[in-house]
């Protein structure tokens, strides 16, 4: 059992519990800037097109007392913590971290009293300092401070108490604090990805469910590969995963309980059921069912029961995805010929086509922010793109054999998979930001497909 | 101040990987029986191990019909004249062994998305099944399963390979 405490998001008020852990209680208040002399606020644009990544200094986090913990000694953890934060921020494409190797060491007493003159000379615009401390109850406390180097002010701070086995999460939480404060966007680094790990020849790929942190750490297989598994998705509470399995040669949707490690078949009938997705409140599972060659979209209680049919076109209706408020569903249908994207109300009424560009459109996924729908565009290549829920503003982000988008918790990054051509046919997991300019492969032990990004962890 | 408590999962609680998974059902190897004769009803059990083919088996089916595989056009599930000839030969064989059950696999090439191809494979399997039923085969003898694009038979990324992968395959269950 692991406990995680998250303390204090306020900028200027020191939290009592946190202040005890700080090297010296931070007395400073942000100075009110005289009118007319306001410095340009330190901020980073997520969607603003081409802009140079912000240089940010992230020195190793000092520890007041080197203590050996199950996660390692606290001084080593301090270096690794800075690396995790730097890696997250670098991967966002919005920051150029100056790592510990380029910077002088920071003393414990400096953590909340930075040597701004030194940091100004490094070229960094922002500075992340922090400390690692082993607490008496076997946990770790990580302090995280963000400073504006030019204005010489603290922008925000947080403290995180984690068990040693969960230590990396404190680094992600700190990176999230920095990202959110400097971009104005929601955090997303402290999150996981579930996906299909693939290995073996193209004609007989072994597919296993696997789960990992969004940076690839803490990788773990969930199924053993004896049955084909496809299209996993997290439950909103992250305690289970809905997916499709060929277990017993009866391909159908299952819920995998992360606590017990047991799968449970959701719909008890002989039909092919697939493309499962949870509703935002976790009460329903949207899925597709094929009967006699016709595929329609249904929903069923997450506990099982009798499915309710939502579409009834003679074509293939699949790939349903709820809007974040649960009131609408985006899906794909070939009722007009090729695959196109449609939107309907959650009860199946008001079905309306929204994609009208050239080519076919598939795998629509509603952003958790509600503002965009990600899709796969087919026509020669498979490309990932976005459009508004009304179908306007189509933007293509990638160009490869790319498929299966899934949104980061803040709706600003998309993960997908890219397939190789030919008999190798290997697939890899990738991420792309909304500008399409920041694209990155996610490291996995084997090949991978169908990545699904989970919610931000609490 | 936000103060949240989270219960996380230990690795031990998750260690029971695949505890409930089952061995994949594989079709048994072609049974052997040197008394093979096309008009002989299928024996109740597999053959005696000396290398011949059991009448009524999948091996017998594959030897007897013009093909166990029907091909489809891109994004299509129509049964064309070539497919009809193949399925006619399958129907003839299935009528000869009225106790035999078969499953029809539906497959797609890699040029569609994963979920759509599951539906497309189901559509193709059912197109083949419906034709066999129209030719007098009891539908209760026929099941379908779609593999989408997950089990290509040709591994290239070219027209010739894709054409082979857009298929339905009739497999006799022994």
Describe the protein in words.
The complex is a heterodimer of chains A (458) and B (174). Chain A has 2 domains: 158 residues, 3-Layer(aba) Sandwich (Rossmann fold); 266 residues, Neuraminidase (6 Propeller). Chain A contains 4 helices and 32 strands. The two termini of chain A are 15 Å apart. Helices cover 29% and strands 17% of the residues of chain B. Chain B has a 4-stranded mixed β-sheet with strand order 2-5-3-4. In chain B, helix 2 packs across helix 3. Chains A and B meet through strand 1, strand 11 and strand 16 of A and strand 1, helix 3 and strand 4 of B.
Short summary of the structure?
The complex is a heterodimer of chains A (458) and B (174). By secondary structure, chain A is mostly beta strands. Helices cover 10% and strands 41% of the residues of chain A.
Summarize the SSE layout with pairings.
The complex is a heterodimer of chains A (458) and B (174).
Chain A: E1 2-7, H1 16-21, E2 54-57, E3 68-69, E4 72-73, H2 74-91, E5 95-98, H3 116-121, E6 126-134, E7 140-148, E8 153-162, H4 167-183, E9 191-199, E10 206-213, E11 220-221, E12 229-234, E13 240-245, E14 252-257, E15 262-265, E16 272-278, E17 284-291, E18 294-301, E19 308-309, E20 317-322, E21 328-333, E22 340-345, E23 352-353, E24 360-366, E25 373-379, E26 381-387, E27 395-396, E28 402-407, E29 413-419, E30 427-433, E31 439-442, E32 447-456
Parallel strand pairs in A: 2-5, 2-6
Antiparallel strand pairs in A: 1-8, 3-4, 6-7, 7-8, 9-10, 9-32, 10-11, 12-13, 13-14, 14-15, 16-17, 17-18, 18-19, 20-21, 21-22, 22-23, 24-25, 25-26, 26-27, 28-29, 29-30, 30-31
Helix pairs in contact in A: 2-4
Chain B: E1 3-8, H1 58-64, E2 69-71, H2 81-96, E3 101-107, H3 114-134, E4 142-148, H4 159-165, E5 167-173
Parallel strand pairs in B: 3-4
Antiparallel strand pairs in B: 2-5, 3-5
Keywords:
heterodimer; A: 458 residues; mainly beta; Rossmann fold; Neuraminidase; 6-stranded mixed β-sheet; 4-stranded antiparallel β-sheet; 4 helices; 41% strand; B: 174 residues; alpha+beta; 2 domains; 4-stranded mixed β-sheet; 5 strands; 29% helix; globular
